[in-house]
Amino acid sequence: AELLPKGHYLCTGLDLYLFHEPDMMASMALVHSRIRRVLIGSPRKDGALISGEHHLHALRALNHHYRVFQVSRV
């Protein structure tokens, strides 16, 4: 089964699970893809969402925002 309708490339309403926090370029690609939420396993020094100083997902100047969560093992 396809997650997105044929011919669509936007990820509106989808969640993304990552082992490591994405860098600036990947984080901006998530803005362009219109992802809904990003769940991160571990932060990185060069990360652009939770560990860095940018918090790109929350910049007011951007036309799309997504929620970011850090998850941990139980």
The class by helix and strand makeup works out as alpha/beta
Query: Which percent bin holds the helix content?
Result: 10-25%
Residue runs with pLDDT of under 50 for 5 or more positions: none
Overall radius of gyration: 13 Å
Task: Describe this structure as you would to a colleague.
This protein is α/β, with parallel strands linked by helices and 74 residues long. The protein has a three-stranded parallel beta sheet, with no helix packed on it. Strand 1, helix 1 and strand 2 form a beta-alpha-beta unit. The protein is globular and about 35 Å long.
Features:
globular; 1 helix; 74 residues; 3-stranded parallel sheet; alpha/beta
Describe the protein's topology.
Layout lengths: L14 E6 L3 H10 L3 E6 L24 E4 L4
Parallel strand pairs: 1-2, 2-3
Overview in brief:
The protein has 74 residues and is of the alpha/beta class. The chain has one helix spanning 24-33; strands at residues 15-20, 37-42, 67-70.
